[in-house]
Amino acid sequence: FDLKNDDFTKLDELGQGNGGSVMKVQHVPTGTIMAKKVVLIDAKPAERKKILLELQIMHDCDSPYIISSYGAYLAEPNICICMEFMDKGSFDGIYKRIGAIDIKVVGKVAVAVLEGLRYLYDIHRIIHRDIKPSNILCNSNGDIKLCDFGVSGELINSIANTFVGTSIYMSPERIQGATYSVKSDIWSLGITLIELSVGQFPFSGSFDDDDDDDSDLPHVPEHEESPPPQNHRDSLQVPLSAATKRRNRRRSKGVSLHGGPMMMSIIELMHQIVNEPSPRLPTGKFGAEAEAFVDGCLEKDVDKRRTPGQLFDYAWILSSRQNGVDMKAWAATF
Ligand code: ATP
Ligand code: MG
C-alpha cells in the first residue's frame, strides 16, 4: 500500500489515548477498512526516518495474535499508523459495556496474550511494554490480538506527551526504574486478567477504603488554605484531598493519566503498587487454576515471577486452550 492522507475517508472515532487518537477509516483506492492511529510527534527529519524504519517491524509481523499493519506514513506534524480494524474494539471497552467477563473468555485472553508475547519476543526480539485491556482487541470472528507494542524506541522518545510510558499497569520494578523485561509484561497481564474477570481495575478498591485518611501519604487538611507551593514536592501534595474525591467519581470511567490533580493519584497508585501486597483474584470465585496463574504473574519479586515459557505450562492455560468456549458466538453477544 502507498498510503497518504488524501486517500482516506473518516468513518468513525474509535478512541483517544495518551499517545494519539484512533479513527476508523476507509482507504478509498482499495476499499479497505482500517484503523488509523494519528500520533503527534516532535522529531527532527533523521528521527522521523528512523521511526518509519522501526515501524516497518510492525508490517513484518505475521501472527494470529498480533494486529496486522498496512503501513505508516508521515503527515506533518503527525505520524499515521494504519492497522487492521478490529470491529469489537478493545477489552476495556468490552467489559465497560457488558460487565465482568466470563472467566473462560478471560482464559482465552490469557492464552492469546501469552502467544502474542511469545511471537513478538521469539521472532522479533520485541518486548510489548504496554499490555493492558485497551491494547487487547477483539473482532466478530472471536479473534483476540495485541496492538500498540513497542516496536519503535524512537517513536516513544518523540511523542509529544510527558505521560507516555507511564502506565497504571506498570510493574513494581519498572516503577523503581529497572529496565524493561518480558516479565514486566507478565505483571501487566496479571493486572489485566483481574480487571477483566472482576470488571474493575484491581487497585481501585484499596483507594476507596480510606477516602479521608490517606494514612502514610502526605496530606493537606481538608478546609485549610494551602500555602503557595514551595517546590515540586509541595505542589504535588496540595491537590491530594480534592483529587481523592474526584478520583472516586472518575474511577467508574477508568483512571486517566491526564494532568492536574490526577497526578497525585498516580503517584499514590505507584506507591501502592510498590509497597502493598500484589492484588489477587477473589478466593474461590474463579477456580484455583486461574488463581494460581494470576499469582504467578503478580509475584512482586521479578526473580520469582514466572516467565511466559513457564506460564504456558500452567494448568489454567492448558484447560483454557480447550475449554470449549465459542469465541465467535461470544463476540456476537454484544
Ligand atoms: P494509551 O494511549 O494510554 O495506550 P489507549 O490504548 O486507550 O490508551 P489508543 O491506543 O490511542 O489509546 O487507542 C484508543 C482506542 O482506540 C482504544 O481504546 C481502542 O478501543 C481503539 N482502537 C485502537 N486500535 C484499534 C483497532 N486496530 N481496531 C479497533 N479499535 C481500535
Ligand atoms: Mg492503545
Content-based structural category: alpha+beta
What small molecules does this complex bind? adenosine-5'-triphosphate, magnesium ion
| Overall morphology | globular
Number of helices: 14
Descriptive overview:
The chain contains 14 helices and seven strands. The strands form two sheets. Strands 1-2-3-5-4 form a five-stranded antiparallel β-sheet, covered by helices on one side. A two-stranded antiparallel ribbon has the order 6-7. By secondary structure, the protein is α+β, with helices and mostly antiparallel strands. Residues 205-259 have low confidence and may be disordered. The chain has helices at residues 45-60, 91-98, 103-124, 153-158, 172-175, 182-198, 204-208, 232-237, 240-251, 262-275, 288-297, 308-311, 315-321, 327-331, and strands spanning 8-16, 21-27, 32-40, 69-75, 78-84, 136-138, 144-146. Bound molecules: adenosine-5'-triphosphate and magnesium ion. ATP binds at residue 37. Keywords: ATP-binding, Kinase, Nucleotide-binding, Serine/threonine-protein kinase, Transferase.
Write the layout of secondary structure elements.
Blueprint: E1 8-16, E2 21-27, E3 32-40, H1 45-60, E4 69-75, E5 78-84, H2 91-98, H3 103-124, E6 136-138, E7 144-146, H4 153-158, H5 172-175, H6 182-198, H7 204-208, H8 232-237, H9 240-251, H10 262-275, H11 288-297, H12 308-311, H13 315-321, H14 327-331
Helix pairs in contact: 3-6, 3-13, 6-11
The structure holds adenosine-5'-triphosphate and magnesium ion.
Keywords:
ATP-binding; transferase; 14 helices; binds adenosine-5'-triphosphate; protein serine/threonine kinase activity; binds magnesium ion; 334 residues; five-stranded antiparallel β-sheet; two-stranded antiparallel sheet; 41% helix; ATP binding
